[in-house]
Amino acid sequence: MREAFKSVFLLVLIVSSFVQTGMLLYSSPSYDEIRNGDNYVTPFKISDKYEKQVYELASPQQIMVHQDGKHQALYPGNSLYPTLMKKIHYAPVEKASMIQPSEKDWDDLLKKTPGLELRYYQPMPSGVIQTLFSSEIDLSDLKEVTRMWVFVEKGNRVTFWFISDQESKVMETSARINQFDRWISEAVNSNSAAMEPVFANGSIKEEQGIPKPFYLPKKTMSVNHYVYQLSDPIKIDDMKTALFPNPRLVQSTLVLNKSYIYTDTSRTLQYNTQNHSMIYSNPAPKSTDTGIPAEELDRINLFMLRHGGWTGDYHLERMDEDPNAQLHHYIFRLLVRQFPVYWNSNAKGPDIDLDTIRLSATDQGVSNYERSLYYLLSAPEKTGTSRLPGKDDVLKAVKAQGISLQEIRSIHPGYSAVPRQKHVELQPVWVINRSNGKQWFIRSSESQGE
């Protein structure tokens, strides 16, 4: 009996040992997590609703569908949008080369050839554009890309034009995408906004070099407006736990303007208690070479997924380069129901700014992370409709402001976010991006709420 008891006891000890070993292996950081320089921390999750791949974060904000001289606009919220971007991402592209399209080529694209014009509201570095493709493509002859024009040649063969409006250059490549023409037909038949091209010099024939149209509806355009409830701010203790490898070693200091600085001697987290915003810094050794955007965006996306997740539908708006620090700064803008959100800092209400998240990365990981600790709750509390002005009224308003069409980089729909205590009103606007970097908004006329 005693021997049987000993055998059972020994078996229990062995099983317990295996269980403890398994728990240690499961809870320990993986080799990749140690190697990539972000340092393993216990993750916390705010939301996994907005998880994306890098090519989705860097996708353009507007697609113009061209067929038989008609033009329709699609935006990221359209159900056809992710299907197209996935087709492009996995298309095996050929080597790209410089071309010089003729005036007839441009005229055919606008009036005859079925195709898509993928448009960025801000010029995007060519290194970022390369993330849209799973296969390698060298676009280094272009500093930045404003648009991509994609059209069918024969069968499943598709041509890509990468257009830099600022440099007046075009690069071309080809790929095979099955049923691409069918996708265009579906887009034409979808309930998307009909648009008309507007040229700064009056017509495509009067344009010098590469024609740079922007698009407006002939008549007023109906756009929903929303009222969203603000979340409670993310707890700073949760961010400390996520961002520092050992939060117990973190010391805090109260500084001016009711801000705290938390540090473990190498990393710092600045927390503003008035507007509940934070700036995290993890300085990396200064590099002599600027990083590769595709790799940096991948590190940023992994960092966000491990540190609470994206708290909204954020898309890359632009990349700024700091030549002194050999560092790239990535600015991600919130999109709500297809359109980008711009915080109205002049409105009365809480002093918060949650329309952008800013990050920087090096080969050691994320070095800078700035954001508001507030976010919009997922479902709007109230919806209604507004009407954005049509083409003639927009052009009259632009002229009245003394803005010439030659200095307009883009015109697109967006939302002006007006804070109201625990709520945020999203009011439809036309966003005018000027070549000097300034923005101006044309507001909508509101109608009866639904």
TrEMBL record:
UniProt name for this protein: Transcriptional regulator
Naturally occurring in which organism (per UniProt): Marinithermofilum abyssi
Domain Regulatory protein YycH: 3-434
Family annotation (CDD domains): YycH_N (cd15787)
InterPro entries documented for this protein: YycH, YycH/YycI_2
A Pfam family hit: YycH
Origin: domain of life: Bacteria
